[in-house]
Amino acid sequence: MSRHHIAQKWTTHAPKLREKWTALLPRPCLACGQPVTKGDRWHVGHIIAAEDGGKPTMQNTAPVHAHCNLSDGGKRGAARVNAARRAVAARDQAESGRRSWR
Length: 102
Ligand SMILES: [Zn+2]
Prior knowledge:
Radius of gyration: 13 Å
Number of domains: 1
Order of helices and strands: HEEEEHH
Strand content: 5-15%
Number of strands: 4
CATH class: Mainly Alpha
Structural class: alpha+beta
Keywords: Endonuclease, Hydrolase, Nuclease
Low-confidence stretches: none
InterPro entries: HNH, HNH_nuc
Protein name: HNH endonuclease
Bound molecules: zinc ion
Organism: Leifsonia virtsii
Oligomer: single chain
Mean pLDDT: 78
Distance between the termini: 41 Å
Pfam families: HNH
């Protein structure tokens, strides 16, 4: 299976993840950090890309605004990686409620 096909397979799992994330909104956008609400157009974004071995799990995904996801254009640059790390840090902070990440 090529790397391309792995990415294709991942998308087939996204609808169920989307249902789960919808129940958890609002959540920070994976790309810009602003809240994604049920009134927004949004996609299920992945923190570790499928082609890098990321799994289609709640732990490896987060909501991302449609415009943020589309503007990414499939490129995986430093900005995207940093945004993903901030999203994970924010999630950790929300759970611990004590660690500053700014
Ligand atoms: Zn966004």
